[in-house]
Amino acid sequence: MSKIIRLYRGDTFNFVLNIDDESTLEHYYVLRKNDLVYLGVTLPHQPFEDAIIKKVLTAADCDSSGNIIVTFEPKDTVNIMPGVYYYSVKLRKSIDDKRKEEVITVIPKTKFVILD
């Protein structure tokens, strides 16, 4: 399956994001209460932290099966020129009740195409 995202500038666009986790019965990671998923859309050589589109997703953004639902609203892309950009996804997950965390890149820079 291609992870390239293509959408028309100014359109609403939804997709399901599952984070692989072979250690679970479902084979995907189910977000916990304090977990955060960061999605950033950048120019080719732009750092993730300077993303032109930023999304922060929590367990509240999951459906009843635990699938993470990512939504791009018209305001996210309407003022961005058509072209090839890149998106990345990172997971900040809680390790235990001692407030330890780890950050994992779950999708490295992948094409994000805005069409006109």
Q: What key phrases describe this protein's structure?
A:
single chain; 116 residues; mainly beta; Immunoglobulin-like; 5-stranded mixed beta sheet; two-stranded antiparallel ribbon; 1 helix; 9 strands; 3% helix; 49% strand
Describe the protein in words.
The protein has one helix spanning 74-77; strands at 5-8, 13-17, 19-20, 28-29, 36-42, 53-57, 68-72, 83-94, 101-115. The radius of gyration is 15 Å and the shape is globular. It starts with a strand and ends with a strand. The protein is built from one helix and nine strands. The chain has a single domain (5-115), classed as Immunoglobulin-like (Sandwich). It has 116 residues and is mainly β. The strands form three sheets. Strands 1-9-8-5-6 form a five-stranded mixed β-sheet, with no helix packed on it. The chain has a two-stranded antiparallel ribbon with strand order 2-7. Strands 3-4 form a two-stranded antiparallel sheet. Strand 3 and strand 4 form a beta hairpin. The mean pLDDT is 92.
Please specify the SSE layout and strand pairing.
Blueprint: E1 5-8, E2 13-17, E3 19-20, E4 28-29, E5 36-42, E6 53-57, E7 68-72, H1 74-77, E8 83-94, E9 101-115
Parallel strand pairs: 1-9
Antiparallel strand pairs: 2-7, 3-4, 5-6, 5-8, 8-9
Briefly note the CATH topology name. Answer: Immunoglobulin-like
Overall geometry comes to globular
Mean pLDDT: 92
Q: Into which percentage range does the β-strand content fall?
A: over 45%
| Order of helix and strand elements from N to C terminus | EEEEEEEHEE
Strand numbers in spatial order across the main sheet:
1-9-8-5-6
CATH architecture: Sandwich
Counted by DSSP, the helix tally is 1
Radius of gyration: 15 Å
Instruction: Report the helical percentage.
Output: under 10%
Distance between the termini: 24 Å
Uncertain segments: none
Number of domains: 1
Structural class of the secondary structure composition? Answer: mainly beta
The top-level CATH class is Mainly Beta
The major sheet is characterized as: 5 strands, mixed
